[in-house]
């Protein structure tokens, strides 16, 4: 047995013991927070219920992607049939996370939603292909399959924004005015980054920064081998998981339904998938490639209370993308697309108007 493997096993065991001890010490706090969540104002929005006839797009390595397309309603005179919005979701979520955006544009603008590989209703990734670079290739495959013609606006949240950055790295020529041969005429990057992310700090916050990274990766791999057991423990700790979702996904107090909805999306993602994608975040370094988005209207949105991809990441993206618009949503967390859906939708409206106006005047 290698030293690295043994350290990973020890770290995994330490995590388990620490979790038990923390649970015992924090039981009262968790119970109080859980009760506070239940006492919040009720919102009966039927989150995740919007559907359209699914289309399957097969990636270059044979993974079937679940795609749904909302076409423009011809009976609606104010609809836009010239542009297609393509929404790219984040890590451990699926296309349902875009509920409020989908509801806002349904029938008005042609919109494409899909589950990224190994997420939601899409097929599992082949071994070794759970990477941000592969996700960028998948996005291009989706565009070629369901938006072969016409201008596109890309909207990415969290890992979805990283996916767009990967596409920009490999195909910067796509991000250009339509009359100059570009296909992507606008971009929205929400609660995301192009590098410098250290997810291990969330996993093992008690370890020194210089040690946490490598040990975190080995711990994830060790735990992944027993992913079935991990998944069962995740289910058993439902109340604790709900509280953690509330803390890390949101900034302000949101309705319990929002917390339960996101917690459900997270819990539906097998831990094995969590482990497969984990190394990609540490290796991500695409800030040098995002400048091409400056050729088209680009809006960057992030909550100031985002604990996962903090506001500093969005400010850095803003500095690297010429002419981009930075929108800071006060006190909002990582799931700003739910928590501040009105503000986010208003910014998307503005982006849509700006991008289509530029395309029309070209």
3D architecture notes:
Strands 1-2-4-3-5-6-7-8 form an eight-stranded mixed sheet, with helices on both faces. Mean pLDDT is 85; it is low at 2-8 and 202-213. Helix content is 48%, strand content 14%. The chain is globular, with a radius of gyration of 20 Å. It has helices at residues 3-25, 27-38, 99-105, 132-146, 159-170, 200-203, 209-225, 227-236, 238-249, 256-267, 271-283, 311-320, 336-339, 341-361, and strands at 54-58, 64-70, 80-88, 109-114, 152-157, 184-190, 298-303, 325-329. The longest helix is centred in the N-terminal third of the chain and has 23 residues, at 3-25. It is an alpha/beta fold and 362 residues long. The chain is built from 14 helices and eight strands.
Question: What are its keywords?
Answer:
eight-stranded mixed beta sheet, alpha/beta, 14 helices, 362 residues, disordered N terminus
Low-confidence stretches: 2-8, 202-213
| String of helices and strands | HHEEEHEHEHEHHHHHHEHEHH
Radius of gyration: 20 Å
Determine the N-to-C terminus distance: 64 Å
Summarize the structure.
This protein is α/β, with parallel strands linked by helices and 362 residues long. It is built from 14 helices and eight strands.
What's the SSE blueprint?
Blueprint (H helix, E strand, L loop, with lengths): L2 H23 L1 H12 L15 E5 L5 E7 L9 E9 L10 H7 L3 E6 L17 H15 L5 E6 L1 H12 L13 E7 L9 H4 L5 H17 L1 H10 L1 H12 L6 H12 L3 H13 L14 E6 L7 H10 L4 E5 L6 H4 L1 H21 L1
Parallel strand pairs: 3-4, 3-5, 5-6, 6-7, 7-8
Antiparallel strand pairs: 1-2, 2-4
């Amino acid at each position: 047995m290698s030293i690295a493997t043994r350290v990973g096993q020890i770290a995994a065991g330490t995590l388990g013991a620490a979790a038990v001890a923390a649970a015992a010490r924090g039981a009262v706090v968790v119970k109080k927070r859980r009760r506070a969540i239940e006492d919040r104002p009720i919102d009966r929005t039927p989150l995740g219920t919007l559907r359209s006839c699914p289309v399957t797009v097969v990636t270059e390595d044979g993974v079937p992607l679940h795609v749904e397309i909302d076409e423009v309603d011809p009976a609606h005179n104010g609809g836009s049939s010239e542009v297609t919005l393509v929404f790219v979701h984040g890590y451990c979520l699926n296309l349902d996370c875009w509920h409020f955006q989908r509801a806002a544009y349904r029938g008005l603008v042609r919109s494409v939603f899909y589950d990224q590989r190994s997420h939601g209703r899409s097929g599992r990734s082949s071994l070794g292909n759970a990477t941000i670079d592969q996700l960028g290739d998948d996005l291009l495959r989706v565009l070629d399959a369901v938006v072969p013609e016409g201008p596109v606006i890309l909207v990415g949240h969290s890992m979805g924004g990283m996916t767009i950055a990967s596409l920009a790295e490999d195909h910067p020529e796509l991000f250009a005015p339509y009359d100059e041969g570009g296909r992507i005429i606008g971009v929205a990057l929400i609660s995301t980054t192009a590098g410098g992310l250290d997810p291990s700090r969330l996993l093992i916050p008690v370890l020194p920064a210089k040690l946490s990274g490598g040990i975190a990766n080995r711990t994830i791999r060790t735990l992944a081998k027993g992913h079935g057991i991990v998944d069962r423990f995740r289910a058993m700790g439902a109340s604790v998981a709900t509280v953690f979702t509330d803390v890390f996904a949101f900034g302000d107090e949101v309705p319990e339904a929002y917390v339960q909805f996101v917690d459900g999306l997270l819990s539906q993602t097998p831990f094995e998938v969590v482990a497969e994608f984990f190394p990609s975040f540490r290796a991500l370094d695409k800030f040098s490639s995002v400048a091409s988005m400056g050729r088209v209207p680009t809006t960057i949105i992030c909550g100031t209370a985002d604990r996962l991809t903090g506001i500093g990441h969005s400010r850095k993206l803003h500095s690297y993308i010429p002419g981009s618009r930075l929108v800071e949503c006060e006190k909002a967390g990582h799931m700003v697309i739910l928590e501040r859906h009105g503000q986010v939708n208003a910014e998307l409206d503005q982006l849509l108007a700006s991008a289509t106006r530029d395309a029309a005047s070209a």
